[in-house]
Write a structure and sequence with these properties.
The protein is mainly α. It contains eight helices and no strands. It has a domain of 105 residues. The longest helix is centred in the first third of the chain and has 25 residues. The N and C termini lie close together (11 Å).
Length: 168
Amino acid sequence: MDRLPRLGLAAMAAITPAVIGAMLFARTSDMRDMRLSIALLTGVLCGLAVMLVSRSVRWDAVLIAATLAVAGVVLGFLFDARWNADEAIANQIAAQLVVRNPELELNVARMQAQVIVSGMSTWEIVQGRLNWIGKLTPFMAILGAWFTVKSRLIGRLLRLRGESNQEV
């Protein structure tokens, strides 16, 4: 059987765990210490989906799983920027405005901050919320996908063969 259709189906199957990981990533944004764990989980789930559908542990399966896991993490950042960030960034900007202008009232500063945030693009909000842990999350997703697909234990549990082109 040709491997290309299986890999295409595997990529389509890994979209679901990537989107689920992205939503979980965005919904737990207040727990920033969980982001690395969720990125790793997204990579593992994408790796499992690719392994189950493609029935392969080859490097092309690793690349598909890792690419979709990173896409899930990036999508999670974008969801977080749209779902959660407006209020948090507006509060930070309002606090900065009050510090710079002590005679400015907090309510007026919040209204000005809301106007500033409403004019920001999603990518600007994502960049504003990124810290060093956020920059490590794509690597954790890649690590989770690579480890899952290349794990001999999981391959044996699923009864997959190694680098050969033999069918299961």
